[in-house]
Amino acid sequence: xxxxxxxxxxxxxxxxxxxxxxxxxxxxxxxxxxxxxxxxxxxxxxxxxxxxxxxxxxxxxxxxxxxxxxxxxxxxxxxxxxxxxxxxxxxxxxxxxxxxxxxxxxxxxxxxxxxxxxxxxxxxxxxxxxxxxxxxxxxxxxxxxxxxxxxxxxxxxxxxxxxxxxxxxxxxxxxxxxxxxxxxxxxxxxxxxxxxxxxxxxxxxxxxxxxxxxxxxxxxxxxxxxxxxxxxxxxxxxxxxxxxxxxxxxxxxxxxxxxxxxxxxxxxxxxxxxxxxxxxxxxxxxxxxxxxxxxxxxxxxxxxxxxxxxx
Length: 311
Known about the structure:
With 311 residues, this protein is of the alpha/beta class. 38% of the residues lie in helices and 19% in strands.
């Protein structure tokens, strides 16, 4: 399966939203929803799903929606975060003299193998829990039991790294890569690339979910992208299924909030010019009412209409 679109035409989508916003939004949601349904139908006899994608791709929501679809077919399913397999902070790898929590070696890979093998053979396993405040992992923190025909989804940025499924029967594993695969254009000119659209998601989400100032998100973004290019994307070609999480109407929904955040960056700040470039890009979109956002949309992972700071 390879559901993707190269780019969305901003003028066309804008006209469609003006004529019938609910229809346009429904079509976008159905495009994503069909990919979820097709993925669920492709699970077959696989017992383990490894799901990866870059920051702001919608991994968490996608994993949970696939899990829900599997349960609707009468099978047990659970989602497990690879973040819970981090080494204790004091044991994180040191690369070039600095602690590096981004590489796959920051995870206790042997414990991941043990957990996956147990789930494949018995349908049961204990799971660790990582406390990011203390930097400590607690092993055997919880128990998981999906039975003989259940499926477990392991979600995380390193899920497709070959070190994760090394020596595990490939017939038991389904690999999925999740990311926005579409950008936005006008007259064949790129206005907002798929990576830039993903940055807007991150900018908006981090403002309300992590209380992160926009200039801090902008400062981190190049580092995030560098890590993706070296640690995540090289393995995207290994995926059995690719899911495009771009929603055609998302910049129209996020425009006002994103511009508000970017406009708060002061002129003396080093990211002022870049912020203005994003504002110019976003001004190609016409804001649509936040109330149009469906309650079960993946975009709820990035937008919180009920948050006091959103509008």
